[in-house]
Design goal:
This protein is of the alpha/beta class. The strands form 2 sheets. Strands 1-2-3-4-6-9 form a 6-stranded mixed beta sheet, sandwiched between helices. A hairpin with a 2-residue loop joins strand 1 and strand 2. Helix 5 packs across helix 6 and helix 9 packs antiparallel against helix 10. The chain is globular and about 60 Å long. The model has no long low-confidence stretch (mean pLDDT 96).
Length: 261
C-alpha cells in the first residue's frame, strides 16, 4: 500500500477516511483494510471529530471491489483465506462499532468490497451515476456473515437474495428503491452532500447522537422495551451535561452550546 492509497484527514468536526487508488478505481487491497482500524481509533481519540466520512477521493469511484490481483496469494490456502477474512472483518467491525456516526459518500462504482465498506457505515449518500453490485456469485464464493447481516438488516432477506443471486450491477435509482441509500444527489455531489449532512449531525448533542447509535444497535441485537441496558442508557441521558444545556437553551430561546465530547 502506498501512503496515498488510503489516508485519514481531520478537518474538525469531520474526519475523512479517503480511498485513493485511482489506477484501480480504489480496488481494496488487504493492507488498505488493515489500515482502517487504527484510523478509526485515531478518530475516536480526537475530541474535535464528531462525524466520519468515507469517500473515494479523486479516483472517480467509491471502490470498485476487492483487488483481485491479490487473490492467488491471500486466498491460496484455507488458513490464508481465514486470515484475510479476519483482517477485512476487523476493518468493517471498526467502522460499524465506531461510537461516532459514519457516512459513506458514494460517487462512481461501489461494488463488492466497496459495498461491504459502505454498508458498515451508518448513512449512505450517493450521486447520480453511481453503480452498485455485490458479486461473490461471479467468483464462486459466499458473502461473509457480517456483511450478510448488515445487508439483510438494511433491506431484508428477499431483496438481499435477489442482488446476491443475480450478482448484477444496478443503478442509483434501484439502490435507493431497495433501501440501501439515505440521500441521492447530483452526479459528483455526494461528498459535498455528506459533508453538509455531517455538519448537521455535528450541530446536535453528541451525547444524544452516540446514545442513539448505541440504542439502535441494541434494538437490532434484540434489546426489548424492558432490557436493563436500554433502560440504563435512557436514564443516563437525564444526567448528561448536554441535557441541561439543551432544555436551558430552549427556555432561554438561544442556540444550544453542547459540550459533550
Amino acid at each position: 500500500m502506498s501512503q496515498s492509497s488510503i489516508r485519514l484527514e481531520i478537518n474538525a468536526p469531520v474526519g475523512e477516511i479517503i480511498l485513493n487508488k485511482p489506477g484501480k478505481r480504489n480496488a481494496l487491497s488487504v493492507d488498505m483494510w488493515a489500515a482502517i482500524p487504527e484510523m478509526i481509533q485515531r478518530i475516536i481519540a480526537a475530541d474535535a471529530v464528531k462525524v466520519v466520512i468515507l469517500h473515494g477521493g479523486d479516483a472517480g469511484a467509491f471502490a470498485a471491489g476487492a483487488d483481485i490481483s491479490e487473490f492467488s496469494t491471500i486466498y491460496s490456502t484455507p488458513e490464508a483465506a481465514a486470515q484475510s477474512g479476519e483482517t477485512i472483518a476487523a476493518a468493517l467491525n471498526a467502522i460499524e462499532h465506531c461510537p461516532k456516526p459514519v457516512i459513506a459518500a458514494i460517487d462512481g462504482a461501489c461494488v463488492g468490497g466497496g459495498m461491504s465498506l459502505a454498508m458498515a457505515a451508518d448513512l449512505r449518500v450517493a450521486g447520480e451515476g453511481a453503480r452498485f453490485g455485490i458479486t461473490p456469485a461471479r467468483l464462486g464464493i459466499v458473502y461473509p456473515a457480517g456483511d450478510m447481516r448488515r445487508l439483510v438488516t438494511a433491506i431484508g432477506a428477499s431483496r438481499a437474495k435477489d442482488i446476491l443471486f443475480t450478482a448484477r450491477i444496478f443503478d442509483v435509482a434501484e439502490a435507493n428503491a431497495l433501501g440501501l441509500l439515505n440521500r441521492v444527489v447530483g452526479k459528483g455531489e455526494a461528498l459535498a452532500a455528506a459533508r453538509a449532512l455531517g455538519e448537521a449531525v455535528a450541530a446536535n448533542s453528541q451525547w444524544s447522537v452516540r446514545a442513539i447509535k448505541q440504542m439502535v444497535a441494541g434494538v437490532e441485537a434484540g434489546w426489548e422495551d424492558t432490557s436493563p441496558e436500554a433502560a440504563a442508557l435512557f436514564v443516563a441521558g437525564f444526567c448528561s451535561e448536554d441535557f441541561v444545556e439543551g432544555y436551558s437553551s430552549f427556555l432561554e430561546k438561544r442556540p444550544a452550546k453542547f459540550t459533550f465530547k
